[in-house]
Design a protein that fits this description.
215 residues; alpha+beta; Arc Repressor Mutant, subunit A; Muramoyl-pentapeptide Carboxypeptidase, domain 2; 2 domains; four-stranded antiparallel β-sheet; elongated
Length: 215
């Protein structure tokens, strides 16, 4: 079964997300050729991304001859359709399930230091997302995670907190986890030239990405 972390990492890529959205929208099996034409990419690139979506369980694939075309020799072409999974998106994006996963694992593993364990687990999960998203730009990855990054005097300010409601209630705990998660994403991506630090401000996420020399 696909986890929320895997879905997040896979759907960060804009071409992959466009293909996934197209397959879900048409509601009939989609060939590689049709998918490529719909999102404006080559057939080989579409095939690569469609198969990646199959690998993680977001799409299902099978070989099926098109009903409106003469049957050619050889194996029928591969077609794709949505798998029986749900990926929940809200605007602005919230990721309470991801935070819940971190906290549940922390309590189960280290009940006497759940807060410390949650920070370590958040960093590990963030690093996994970053590694899976390579070599995407850091701003694109954070956008895919729902942070809504924007340039501000050379920094990246995060205009949305995916854990907003819980951050309001348990600020120190949730912001600490958030900082570790974003730091993990940067570490997983590697070579971003950015550093995550806590910088709470009205109407933004508590984390700000600076250049190390400017922190």
């Amino acid at each position: 079964m696909i986890t929320a972390w895997e879905a997040t990492a896979v759907l960060i890529d804009p071409v992959r997300r466009a293909l996934y959205d197209h397959v879900r929208a048409v509601r009939t099996p989609v060939s590689r050729e049709d998918a490529a034409s719909a999102v404006g990419v080559s057939r080989s690139l579409a095939a690569f991304h469609l198969d990646k979506l199959v690998d993680v369980g977001l799409l299902a694939a099978r070989h099926e001859a098109p009903s409106d075309r003469p049957r050619a020799r050889g194996r029928a072409p591969k077609v794709y359709e949505p798998a029986a999974v749900e990926v929940s998106l809200t605007i602005p994006e919230r990721r309470y399930e991801l935070l819940g996963d971190i906290l549940a694992e922390a309590v189960a593993r280290e009940p006497h230091d759940a807060a410390g364990a949650a920070r370590r687990i958040a960093h590990r999960h963030g690093a996994g997302v970053g590694e899976a998203a390579r070599p995407a730009p850091v701003a694109d990855v954070l956008t895919g995670l729902g942070f809504e990054p924007a340039e501000d005097a050379g920094d990246l300010v995060l205009r949305n907190c995916p854990f907003h409601r819980l951050a309001v209630r348990e600020t120190d705990l949730v912001c600490g986890i958030n900082l570790c998660f974003v730091t993990g994403v940067l570490d997983g991506l590697g070579g971003t030239g950015r550093e995550a630090r806590l910088a709470p401000a009205p109407d933004t996420c508590c984390v700000r990405l600076t250049r190390p020399d400017d922190a």
